[in-house]
Design goal:
592 residues; alpha/beta; six-stranded parallel sheet; 23 helices; 19 strands; 15% strand
């Protein structure tokens, strides 16, 4: 039997579980693991500037490609606590990432040793499992279980905490005979599929709500096939955006209080049946439940049993992996088609397309300072269907979801449940690392951008190119808009006159100088007609220099983006709507 340190055994398991990339920050308590990582080879490492940033890089890496598991490594104490936001984000969105932390030696963990903290207890609520390994011989089993847990059932993150002495202890371990544990996922039955489709057949105006679970299951093609077989319009959730292209004739648009389309909400309110697959009925999607559920029958398919009935009780439910359920749905639907018993949904689907062709928000504005809507219009022109968009939270993300177009799964990479400011820069670096040849475009407001701006240096150091669209109104825009309900505008302005860049006026931070100081390229745009040339130049600079390139658009200070504070039937539009083709020239279905 081979003898090696427990740290080396852990690294060998990572490689045999398919890991070839990691993000992290070394430190004294995790140095034995880093020594093993270096000696073993085969795992590329990106040095982050903040351990929270490394955890978000791991998230972006996982979200980019089916089967990926991002790995984040840090030392003891604050490194682990810095990871908590990334773990929370990954848990909320069902994203498997593995966080590995160093720890004080086992004999002094509970003696207030330097940077000794009970990270397993702290991380427990935001992981599938968090373990401090106290016996070196248990390290292989703990890592094997970690990958099994991350992949089984509802995917999610795991934390493994390794005391210094445990890492350095030699154990017996034979990596050549190591095998990953079989993955367990619940599977729908034929009878369940038949019942769900019988309920579907009884409806007159059915919809499919496709959530992130469809993407996690790598089942988007099955979803499209099922929709096309049945002729039923599809509403993607924000996490499911891209399951079928925005230009697909059965894409009915997104529904919700914020990240929604006018036509999506209108079609949903006309529906009488909803088949939810791999979604969790998030409150910003549903709004008030009485308005969302009234007059509708619901069937819910989810991989996690405790998700069923958590928000509201469905009329029927199936606990299943989305892909397994969809395979059966397709099978039954094909049989019904061949037997001539599939209902004809042509007229219903056509009404959804009519709404999509007429219920547009305006994007074309020529004002200076610019309105944000114009930025997204020009992004649609500059960035094609292959673009992988990355965004987290704020008016920038909400407006982006209302106006941008996504055509493929995993091409809208968004932190849905947690929405931490600062997520976008490191997540985009993780996405670009996972798919180095992709067109990666990040979208941030100025405050999100400032939260973890230091990670741009990691992009410069490790030559990770992407384009970052920064919409700057020098405000906490979403919070300012929410404060309207309290009749205040308090502590949300980021405006000041920068004594070093007086030409900025009241827009405060000089993001161009900061980005350039961190080794990146940056452009500033103040006129709407400059946007498209700037985006084209940014793509060229990213390709030439292999670094992040920032395009900062200086916006009007105050813009209210369409949203509702209560239910999907009462969205406040704020801006004038599109009434002629030139008002929304890059809409999926232009006005005629």
């Amino acid at each position: 039997m081979a003898r090696m340190t427990a740290a080396r055994a852990a690294v060998e398991i990572l490689k045999r579980e398919g890991v070839d990339t990691a993000f992290g920050v070394p430190g004294a308590a995790i140095n034995p693991f880093y020594a093993a990582l270096r000696a073993a080879g085969g795992v590329e490492h990106t040095l982050a500037r903040h351990v929270e940033g490394a955890s978000h890089m791991a998230e972006g890496y996982t979200r980019t490609k089916a089967g990926n598991i991002g790995v984040c490594i840090g030392t003891s104490g604050p490194a682990g606590t810095d990871m908590i936001t990334g773990l929370y984000s990954a848990t909320g969105d069902s994203i498997p990432i593995l966080c590995i932390t160093g720890q004080a030696p086992t004999a002094v963990i509970h003696k207030e040793d330097f940077q000794a903290v009970d990270i397993a207890s702290i991380a427990a609520p935001v992981t599938k499992k968090a373990t401090t390994v106290l016996e070196a011989a248990q390290v292989p089993g703990v890592f094997q279980e970690a990958f099994h847990l991350m992949r089984s059932g509802r995917p999610g993150p795991v934390l493994v905490d390794l005391p210094l002495d445990v890492q350095m202890t030699e154990i017996e371990f034979d990596p050549e005979t190591y095998e990953p544990l079989p993955v367990h996922r619940p599977v729908a039955t034929r009878r369940q599929a038949e019942k769900a489709l019988a309920m579907l057949a009884a409806a007159e105006r059915p919809l499919i709500v496709a959530g992130g679970g469809v993407i996690n299951a790598d089942a988007s093609e099955l979803l499209v096939e099922f929709a096309e077989l049945t002729g039923i319009p599809v509403v993607p959730t924000l996490m499911g955006w891209g399951v079928l292209g925005d230009d697909h004739p059965l894409n009915a648009g997104m529904v919700g209080l914020q990240t929604s389309h006018r036509y999506g909400n209108a079609t949903f309110l006309e529906s009488d049946f909803v088949l939810g697959i791999g979604n969790r009925w998030a409150n910003r999607h549903t709004g008030k439940l009485d308005a969302y559920t009234e007059g509708r029958t619901f069937v819910h398919v989810d991989i996690e049993p405790t998700q069923i009935g958590k928000i509201f009780p469905p009329d029927y439910s199936i606990v299943s992996d989305a892909g397994a359920a969809l395979r059966l749905f397709v099978e039954v639907a094909r049989e019904q088609r061949d037997a001539g018993t599939l209902p004809d949904r042509t007229a219903w689907a056509e009404t959804a397309r009519e709404r999509k062709a007429t219920m547009h928000r305006r994007t074309h504005f020529d004002q200076v300072p610019m309105k944000p809507q114009r930025v997204y219009e020009e992004m649609n022109r500059a960035f094609g269907p292959e673009t992988r968009y990355v965004s987290t939270i704020g008016l920038s993300q909400i407006a982006g979801a209302q106006f941008l177009h996504v055509y493929r799964p995993r091409h809208w990479i968004n932190c849905g449940q947690a929405g931490p400011l600062g997520w976008t820069v490191p997540a985009a670096l993780g996405v670009a690392t996972a798919d180095p040849e992709a067109s990666v475009v990040a979208l941030s407001g100025d405050y999100d951008f400032q939260f973890m701006i230091e990670e741009l240096a990691a992009g410069a150091q490790f030559n990770i190119p992407y384009v970052h669209v920064l919409v700057n109104n020098s405000y906490l825009g979403l919070i300012r808009q929410a404060q309207r309900n309290f009749d205040m505008d308090y502590q949300v302005s980021l405006s000041f006159e920068n004594i070093n860049t007086p030409e900025l006026g009241v827009y405060g931070v000089d993001h161009i100088k900061v980005a350039e100081g961190l080794g990146c390229k940056a452009l500033r745009v103040t006129e709407p007609d400059e946007l498209l040339p700037a985006f084209e130049e940014a793509k060229k600079l990213a390709a030439e220099h292999r670094v992040p390139v920032i395009v900062e658009a200086i916006l009007e200070r105050v813009t209210n983006i369409a949203m509702s504070g209560s239910d999907i039937a009462s969205v406040n539009e704020f801006e004038e709507l599109a009434t002629e083709p030139g008002h929304a020239p890059t809409a999926i279905t232009p006005l005629v």
